[in-house]
Specification:
Strand order of the largest sheet: 3-2-1-4
Helix content: 40-55%
Structural class: alpha/beta
Strand content: 15-25%
Shape: globular
Radius of gyration: 12 Å
Largest sheet: 4 strands, parallel
Distance between the termini: 25 Å
Length: 92
């Protein structure tokens, strides 16, 4: 079902390349949300983004980030806002 209840929303999901984080990203996308996922592994980020973009083009982006580093997190947030125009939802 594609209800678009979250149209014009943007979410950032840390650990979004697998498990619960990945499923949340998929659900948010299904609901019309733009989603940024991050993880520490570039290959996992690339693979997850490729799968999600195949169904939701232009609504998902992936960034490598170690959320234990505050400066990297600051850059992550800036990048998401620059790409999608806003950031209102954080799943960490």
């Amino acid at each position: 079902m594609n209800s678009q209840r979250m149209l014009n929303e943007t979410a950032l999901i840390t650990g979004g390349t697998r498990g619960i984080g990945y499923e949340l990203a998929r659900i948010f996308l299904q609901e019309g949300c733009k989603v940024a996922i991050c993880a520490r592994n570039q290959i996992e980020v690339n693979e997850s983004v490729a799968v999600l973009q195949s169904k939701y083009p232009n609504h998902v982006m992936g960034i490598v980030c170690d959320v234990g580093d505050p400066l990297l997190v600051q850059d992550l947030v800036k990048t998401v806002i620059q790409q999608f125009g806003s950031l209102r939802i954080l799943v960490a």
